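Section handout 9: paired folding examples.
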Amino acid sequence: MKAEYINPFIASVNNIFPQLGFEKISKKNVSIKKNNVERSGILMMLGIVGDIEGNIAYYLNFDDAKKIAGQMMMQEDLDELNSMAKSALSELSNMLTANASINLSQNDIDVDITAPSTLFGESFILDMNTNSFISIEMNVDDMVIDINIAIK
């Protein structure tokens, strides 16, 4: 997968999270993963269509999801991911992907994004639209957000 497809998503994390009050942001790891990855936590998935097509899935474990949603909602401690917290995380995935699509357009790659689908639970399987996908682990104030990118 071309770096010109991946870098806009890294840049979107570096751009959006500071606007939400997060300070320490770094790229932790980049790897290629196969489908059928088992996860527990929350996953926000969006589609991209246009000059390139595929899926973007943002993954957070439950504790990190509560911390990020709490920060977005200006609440210190969330005991659970209630409907408002899930909505905040869904909006975060919209913000990140919209910003990445703006970054892509600066490279003459035009895309539209779909509305996010949010999944949460214990032990679900991540199955993207390709046999393998790029997984980028970003560290945000000592929390990890996985950006999973599958572009055809």
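Moving on to protein 2 of 2.
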Amino acid sequence: MYHNHIERSALAEGRYRWRHDKVLMEIAKSTKTITVAEHNVPWEERLVTSHHLKKDKYQGLIDEAALKGWHANIFPIEVGRRGFPAKSVRYFLQRVGLESKQLKKATREIATMAESSSRWLWLKRAQSWNLSSGEG
């Protein structure tokens, strides 16, 4: 999945220091591959349903890419609100090249972050949020 030879040469030549989107576009054009990963935080009871909804959301893009000769991947990634990472997390992390030790660490960190974020939201539930001012 990773195209390190393209990344290394582009970065070594100094073409893409700050514009990561340009690096990604260069890789996509040269490999005719696009990968979409979208994170979702449903209740644990809705992990499977949410996965299918996200996958269906991008099916048109996948089909269009295939018609144009591109290879497209969609990775809906779900972590439950109480910190339970769905199988999709592990699958995605394996596909992007994490090995066993890294995979366990990343999964644990993702679960901890999801749980602590949900806890923060729960504690702030009674507060009024003013989204236009950046407060909340």
